[in-house]
Amino acid sequence: MIDANGELGRILEGVPEGVSGVPPGFDTLVSQYRRGLTIAVVGRPGVGRDTMARAVRSRLSVAALGPGEDASVLLDADLWLYVLTGVPRADDHRLLEELPRDRTIVVLGKADTHGDPETAAAVASAAAGMTGVPVNPVSGLLACADVTDDEWGFLTGLAESGESMPSMAGQFLVGPPGSRERLLRHRLLRRLDRFGVDIALTCLADGTVADVASLNTILRAISGIDALPSRIAGCVAAVRRERERDVRADLERRAAEGAERDIAERLLRMPEVVLG
Ligand SMILES: Nc1nc2c(ncn2[C@@H]2O[C@H](COP(=O)(O)OP(=O)(O)OP(=O)(O)O)[C@@H](O)[C@H]2O)c(=O)[nH]1
Ligand SMILES: [Mg+2]
What we know:
By secondary structure, this protein is of the alpha/beta class. The protein has 13 helices and five strands. Bound molecules: guanosine-5'-triphosphate and magnesium ion. Guanosine-5'-triphosphate binds next to helix 3 and helix 7.
């Protein structure tokens, strides 16, 4: 632990009082320590990692790296968001074991595909039992659905004509091939999937939503994404410890290399830096 009131702590936290500011050459160390939190979204291929990364970026305003990133960039993340789509398989257990437990959040992604929130919660709870960590059901798709005015107008028309979501999603795809109607139905299925369209039509039919903004609010609430900030907050202390370890390693390297030995050694010698 680095004592926030000691010289190094003050430099890192940007409290110049009592110290002469960031020593020359040490500004990258400080900016590395203070950089925003980055979450790497990981899991088996096809589980919805890209969509989940988009949801975290757009809904939680936290930097999220998707599967397209370089392995080395992913390794630099502060936290890992591990996406399951059911109870964990052998591959999931193996991948999870490689991640630091105190900086990994596990979610049941594509939670909407379980048909109803109770079933998704039951699967998440079974997955939690098998992994030994909490598992939140989250639908990345619904979290960042953002129904457009165009889609809203179309959905309103469907609800007015008494249409509901068929049990087989394919049966929703009616209309002449290439027509606007068929195109919009296709787009809605791709962007909201069966459960999202069902929710939209149900809410329109029973008058729960009066405009597109309230529909988007409901979709976001159902998505489960808003349970993640408290899970992230629960990992912040571990992230801080990891960054402090990085600071120590950087100072030790500088002291060994000699270029900034004096100041690096001084900062390392401070009693506030507890070894180990
Ligand atoms: N219903 C539903 N579908 C989803 C969700 N998230 C992703 N999908 C769909 O799952 C498919 C794969 O999504 P991606 O986000 O690309 O998943 P990925 O893990 O990056 O997969 P690859 O790119 O195939 O490796 C797409 O068709 C998405 O629309 C979700 O929360 N709910
Ligand atoms: Mg993808």
